[in-house]
Sequence to fold (69 residues):
Amino acid sequence: LFIDEGFGSLDEQALDEVLDVLDSLRERDRTVGIVSHVADLRQRVPVRLEIVKDRAGSTVRHHRHGGLL
Fold:
C-alpha cells in the first residue's frame, strides 16, 4: 500500500490516528509506503527512504529510527 501526501492538511490528533492505523497494518506484516514532504513524519516513521535529487541524478538514503543506514 502506498499513500501519496495528504498528511500536511491533518491536525496533530488526526495525524496521530492515521499513524496508529499504519502502525497496526505494519504489525500485521503489511507494507505501507508514504510519500510525504511533512517534516514531522521523519521523526514518527521508524523506517524511511529519502530521495535526494541533484544534477547527476537521484540518490536513495535508507533511514531507520532517525539514523541513516
Remarks:
- The mean pLDDT is 81.
- Residues 55 and 61 are 17 Å apart (CA to CA).
- The beta strands are 2-4, 33-35, 47-54, 57-64, 67-68.
